Batch of 4 targets.
Target 1
Amino acid sequence: MKYLNMRNIGMYTLAIMFSTMLFFSTSSCTQNKKTESFLSLKNGIGTDFLIGVAVNTNETSGLDTLGAALIARQFNSIVPENCMKCAEIHPEENRFSWESADQYVDFGVKHHMFIIGHCLIWHSQLAPWFCVDSIGRDVSPSVLKQRMKFHISTIVSRYKGRVKGWDVVNEALLDDGSYRNSKFYQILGEEFIPYAFKCAHEADPQAELYYNDYSLFLPSKQQGVLHIVKSIRDYGAMITGIGMQSHFTMDGPSISQVQTAIDTLSSTGCKLMITEFDLSVLPFPNDINGAGIEQTEKYSIQYNPYTKSLPDSIEQVWSTHMKDYFDLYRSNKSKIERVTIWGLTDKSSWRNDWPILGRTDYPTLFNRDYTAKQFTKTLMR
Ligand code: G3I
């Protein structure tokens, strides 16, 4: 009996010790899991500046439930990747297509996001009717102005008070700082830009208004932007900010190039925003740069080296570059209002198909399975 009692006491003690250990281990795991699941970008880097993401219609319509949940938990700002572009939202002169844009804005309001509109005037994805008459001739300057005013005022006033900032004009410059020879420029000259900003401000005086472009690390392009800002102000119109798209590659730009761009562009007194940040890990053909959607290149395996997965060594280099860029943005947070990533996951990134269709790139903060990359976790709290 004595032995039995001692044995029972021993077993009882062991049972108590095991269940105690089990309780603390699971509770700490649960705690860790719970902590892990509550980690977010918006509570981390998002306290230095708005942290945003370009969203697609699968995510904002709820079709992509994982994507929608991840966006809601991680970000405090959104921008529509495509649904508000002219060809999508205003396909015919007297017909608007509101469904996707309404879903996008409703998603942003539901999740208390800083909602951006993208983009009111752009030479690409332009509805084919916009700058020509019924037999294909360029319309007159006055007709184009009427159409721009109708387009801008109808869209901006529909979302007045909910869309907080608009990419009013997108990519109007070439790398040398001269004006792109778009239809808008051919018909109206430089005036199309200040005129667009004037129309947007009249439609929603409270909305922030941005000029948005890529490769603004080029000094020549910076000078072009300074000229645009001056032209808007001389016209009596209003501009709030300059969008530096920031579609970067493993070849650059350097930190000092981006810092110089920040210093030059913030000298206008405009807010700055990093509007379309992504960092491709892929090699590019020599004559391809920036983000000009019109640039394309035929497929070759030499430009698509990581079809199965990304080697750890390459992810390490990518992470180092990303840390350098985010450290730079943090050190300039008094000038930078927002950093938006152009795409939620590597799978949904436009980089997989530009400038070469069918590649496998790894340019965003989240993996193809919606998990956060190691670097991304360093931005979370
Ligand atoms: O919606 C049609 C679909 O009906 C059709 O079946 C399919 C195949 O042809 O095309 C779909 O439209 C595509 C659209 O993305 C939506 O997926 C267009 O072809 C395609 O050209 C378009 O690409 C977008 C690109 O802008 C061109 O507008 C990219 O998703 C988008 O990430 C990219 O974003 C631009 C910014 O707006 C401005 N800055 C540069 C950036 C990268 O080019």
Target 2
Amino acid sequence: MPRPAARLVPLDGALLVLVATGCSGPQSALDPAGTGASWIAELLSWMASGATLVWLAVVALAIYAIRSDRDPPSERTARLLILGGGAVVPTVVLGTLLWFGLARMPDLLVPPDEPTLHVAVSGEEWWWRFRYEPPGEPALETANELRLPVGAPVRFTVTTPDVIHSFWIPSLGPKIDLIPGRVNHLVLEPTRVGEFRGVCAEYCGIAHALMAFDVVVVEPDAFEAWIASRRAPAAEPDAALEARGRDAFLSHGCGACHTIRGTPAEGLVGPDLTHVGARPTLGAGLLPNTPETLRAWIARPEQLKPGARMPAFAMLPDEELDAIAAYLDSLE
Ligand code: CUA
């Protein structure tokens, strides 16, 4: 009976599409947009090529051994083959790949005295606290949103108050663990502008898969303008609904956990909301940021993100939920 070879073709095609779509996009280590990611992609291609060559050689030898009708080799030849193929070749191949990998490591470090933008990262349950410390300027805190200038190294120091996380922007470079009681260092240098996605790459608890962040790489001028806009205190409400929302936000104690600079809200437990309306996403990469999703989040965060630490405010009257959502949405 003929084998149904034709049926394999669409499956192969589908697999190829699946594999190929994993090679690009805002979160692909194979589509580098930073020096570290380029180095990793290069290392991967060397490793994969080396592994393929070794595999082809082994398969060729096996086929030759099966098909050959020559007499068995002498004991001396067999011993040489085992020594060469089992010890010398692996040592040379693996040693070369190790040397190639280690030789590039220092490129990922920036001398500590070089003036670079510094961002302190803290992994929270379950979101990201980013504290910008530009050289010679006061610090600035934001959450779940990283904006970086293209073409310059950025120094990250990462830590966490409670559980272990891992900070990873696959398009830009390597990942680094956030460990309680330790400060780890990482340098990333974006090489092209664009929008990327960062993730937590270490299982940390119930919302591990729901703590992503937006990364936007821009020209240096646009970055300076962004920092300046983020330094400004929160916008004053310019509609009655928004003013009502601000009053409700303050009177229901939201300011115990959140800061909105320019208002009495100075809480440090949750994300800084001074410019929350300008963020692309809500709930650490969970939802698009709109008045509707803001309202849903305030009412029932746990339902949208199991494990979210924020208490639910579903008991507030509908008008107040609408007003708070409108106020937060206006904070651009
Ligand atoms: Cu945080 Cu996984």
Target 3
Amino acid sequence: MEPATIILTTITIAALTSSIIIWRNLTKRIHSNQQSYSNKREQHEKILTKTEAERTELKLLLNSFDDALVITNEAGIIQVSNKAANQLCQRHTIRGKSISSTLLDHEICECITKAIKKNKPKKQKLILTSSTFGQEETIENSAWIIDYAPLPLDNDTPLHRIIIRNVSSEHRTDQVKREFVANASHELRTPLAIINGYLENLIDDNIIENPNIARKALTTMRKHSDRLAQLIEEMLIISKLESGAAAQLKNEPFQINDTISTVIDRLSPLTQKQKATIITHFDPELITFTGDAFYWEQAIYNLIENALKQNANTPIQITVDTKISETKKDNGNKKLTIKITDNGKGIPTAHLPYIFNRFYRVQKHHSQNQVRGTGLGLSIVKHAIEAHGGKIKASSTPGIETTFKITCPIKK
Ligand code: ADP
């Protein structure tokens, strides 16, 4: 081989070798680049999946709150809202919308806007007298707690966190309790004031020396002290039934027809005095009812006694029906229906919705003749029946027919 050829061949081989080495290195680098790219992609995908899982978790957590939660920016534009907040505003989502255009009540809006401006934590209770906020129809006295706090961010303008809590049912319970205390104090004070008045007369005016007048005063005092005792007794029963004692009611089997007969016997002196008649139509099936017989006797006594009391000068007719039937659910369960009907003066339609309220008495019935009572009887009846899972309804055509209908499931 010629020297020139040898040199050329050597150069070519060297060039080839170096290009192979370069190609190899390049391939290696490309390969390693590809490797690191796919590693990075994998890492990136992992981060994305993790972030997505965290977001879903966060969303689930936010949506699990019953309270509406909203996070807004400085301008009051909603950045985050949970399901309860969307529902409250009756929208699918309120993200990106302003507080003022989504919250459907101007009082709530104003409260939140003011809090955002002040930028200080604040909790406020708002009573909306008549509003559709958060409801399908206008309701009286709904109550809301607006809980605001700024969320300071290190490098950014702060965000604002608002929680809107519906406290209407707690508010109503408090209202009922306040009214009960006010009414109870008033009802207790009246007989007490009368007793005190008579005592003063007896002692200071020396009436005690005159046996006839003294006897009259003492009789009146006894009437009012009886009323006081009855009021206290009935208030205790109501508070027991309301304070969850329903769960402590006895759960014993008893014959409901026997309970009704006992009540009729207990009231027979009054029935005879008023020349009233009580007719019973008992279901032929023996009705073994499970519950607290004391409360059932009390409820039936109140209902029959009311009919007699309210018609003291009329020889009325009272009928008591008991019936067992299958429940609508068709699952073999049975229900008990008790109907107590009288043909007395009845209850005017306008008063019917209120007669189960505590201390409610139909004024017309009591202004003409002082009918004994506290206005607590029907409230006790309703509580006692509801504590057994039952319901009571009243209907009345004054002078013709007044019916109290109780329905209650029979426990197997
Ligand atoms: P009270 O202690 O006054 O009897 P209730 O709560 O038992 O209180 O009853 C409330 C009011 O409902 C009574 O004061 C009376 O005006 C009316 N009422 C209840 N039952 C009858 C009835 N059968 N007929 C006419 N009025 C009734």
Target 4
Amino acid sequence: MADIIQLLPDHVANQIAAGEVVQRPASVVKELLENAIDAKATNIKLLIKDAGKNLVQVIDNGIGMSQTDARMSFERHATSKIKSALDIYDLHTKGFRGEALASIAAIAQVELKTKQENQEIGSVLKIEGSKIVLQEVISTPKGTSIAVKNLFFNIPARRNFLKSNAVETRHIIDEFQRVALAHPNIAFSLYHNDAEVYQLKSENLRQRITGIFGDRINDKLVPVNETTELVKITGFVTNPKFSKKKRGEQFFFANNRFIKSNYLNHAVVKAYEGLLGSGYHPSYFIFLEVNPQTIDINIHPTKTEIKFENESDIYAIIRATVKHSLGQYNIAPLLDFNRDDAMDVPYSYKNADKKTPTISVNPDFNPFERSKNVPSSKSSDSWESLYIETQLSSEVDLNQIEVSLESNISQASLFDDINEQIANKTLQVQRKYIVSSIKNSLVVIKQNLAHERILYEELLTKITVEDAVSQQVLIPIEIDFAKQDVAVLFETKQELENIGFQFKEFRSDGVILDGIPATIPQDKLVATLEEIIENIKMDNAEDHFGLLDSIIKTMAKTLSIPIGKQLNTKEQEDLINKLFSCKEPNYSPSGKQIFINLAFDDLEQKFKK
Ligand code: ADP
Ligand code: MG
């Protein structure tokens, strides 16, 4: 039989490679902008027509190319940026694969004009589907202009796959913003269908951020700055007061390359802990500088993920740095700074045996019912911590302690019938605090933390004492996750099933669930799972209980009522009642103080000064 193996013709190979490099017009934008930066341009112009489907053109004033290089630049693996494989470990340029121009030229009509500074005359080159259709000398300014027309003209299926102009434009603007933010010293402009979108002159980072996101962001920017042996951190975060309900402007750059990192994002979010209502997101523009040898950028050309050698240290440094900045600007409660995470071990798990439930809280317990003679010895335990916290005199018999919510302080009496006093005894302030008076003091309760504590103990009870309630779903739910996240879920399968998740299938790109915990509303399912995954990645819990606890904490946090939610009187009272029937009403599951109290005696002293 005849030999059947053939080498693919170059243009076919290039088309296949193009599939990887060029997904959409925004990919072309990224590659061309990066080439212009590598060419040391100080002024870069981006012209777009019809969301880049018909034209993406980048004009720079960089070093330009010789006639030979102009032709060479479209060959596959043609690059001026590395000479040996070792160079990629010490890379200071954006590109190095020498694939971008070859790929783009395989699937579009490209026109290149370029001239080096010391040359009289420049070159023009036209290529269509990898074929050079014209090469001539031309008079052109110093630098390079590359126009990419009719993207995917020769692959109709790919062209049809492009999204609406609005979507493709959004992608282009995203790429433009990332590159422009990473290089504030370079002037950039963007025109779409001849209309000016951005005109950014060479400036500093703060000016660049306001140049892109508008002057209003200026007052919100809080600088971050830290230099350690591992990493240098600069940039800005935003004052939590201005956080966004939608994911805000969030940018990480590593050695001036935009990167995506859920892991590092989590570090920033952690630094904001307690400052943001749930569902709110900080904006940030954080630049990391690390030794190029400690990062792995040798990954898929279009991927923005990056692998740091010292990822967990960098996580900790980012978290501390952001927290410090927020604190310096008097934004975060300073008290919280030195909090020791080791303190967060849940009281119930410290010596817990995996099989033996140790918690028994009745979440429906209502202290007001106690005065209607529904005694419960269990619940009196729950009052203990409050009792100690408020430092009631020790002569008082524990079993006699009641809580009263008093409207009239002067008539306060330890043993008054509470039932007469519960109407309107609470007040919500700033949709954030519940103010009330309990026994001999005024208490101010942070609503979100209180609810987090209540949910945490309820969930803990459900899981350790009762059987987890799983809700079967009629149609299995498919959720997409990155490969490594599926791995996390798989590793944690047992714990997740303990709390009511039922997995039908683990795939490489997601999971299929046929049961979910009854406590999680469907619309919060994905967010909850994402949070759980992130926290597990962070926590490194080694045992079953550590994991389970981390999951429950996450759920409590994700599902708790946020700051900003208005609560009616009934809900306020409910929250107070449930909080103070918790085992540990003083601290949230992550160790934050839930309420403060001011003894009336102390209050009175203040008036005597
Ligand atoms: P890479 O950037 O990975 O080297 P590209 O295919 O993007 O590969 O570009 C190939 C080569 O073409 C580059 O290495 C560079 O020498 C040259 N080049 C591309 N764009 C420009 C530009 N705007 N100015 C000067 N040279 C350029
Ligand atoms: Mg390149």
